[in-house]
Write a structure and sequence with these properties.
Elements (H helix, E strand, L loop, with lengths): L3 E4 L27 E5 L10 H11 L4 E5 L6 H4 L4 E4 L2 E7 L2 E4 L3 E5 L2 E6 L24 H13 L6 E4 L4 H7 L9 H12 L4 E4 L6 E4 L5 E4 L4 E3 L3
Parallel strand pairs: 1-2, 2-3, 3-6, 8-9, 9-10, 10-12
Antiparallel strand pairs: 1-13, 4-5, 5-6, 7-8, 11-12
Length: 234
Amino acid sequence: MSKVYITGDVHCPNDVHKLNAGNFPEQRTMTRDDVVIVAGDFGLVWHDDKTYHHWLDWFASRKYTLMWIDGNHENHDWLAEFPVAERFGGQVHVIAHNVLHMMRGEVFTINGKTWFAFGGAMSIDRHMRTPGQSWWPSELPSVAECNHGMEVLDRVNWQVDHVVTHTAPGAVLDSMFPNYVRVTDPTERYLSAVHEQLKFKHWWFGHWHHDLDDIDKQGRFYTCLYDHVVSVDD
């Protein structure tokens, strides 16, 4: 049976070390049927330069399939130019044969389990960044993307096994980070609306640069990821 692992922000190349063989030795026996998911801020698609091509070659040489959702720190304009294909039952941008961007609002079936994927988040440091060079307005989901996500969830009767997002619903963040002072993110509001209706087992996200687990009164699990690469067992 294939294996699925998931981690948080990679900020390529700043945090790529978490995926090297020393920190992630499980990859030595993995194959293309095995999947590693990055919960946003992958950072590979940034600028078409030597850094991009070096790390693209590095990820393309991995034995596993890497799938990732976009965070707020991606070049969203360039990302939109990559070819679209269907993989694991959902739409992806194909960056390399084994490097796939999970498009917003899609449901994927990976290792027999269903995953709702929805990237994006608001950069609180956008005032310090340059539009079109280090920040892109489409980090926030469009109305069309939000509606698409709802339509896709209608098709699966609002029930999946896993959810992977970059940020998380407001109520989840309030529970997991009660001392944080947050700026309202429209992405959180959308995810809150999804959260109210969706039946799921485990919600995974990144963005907050912590490794933390929580469980709600309904027995649903939540995991914020940053440094850890964890196995998805169910």
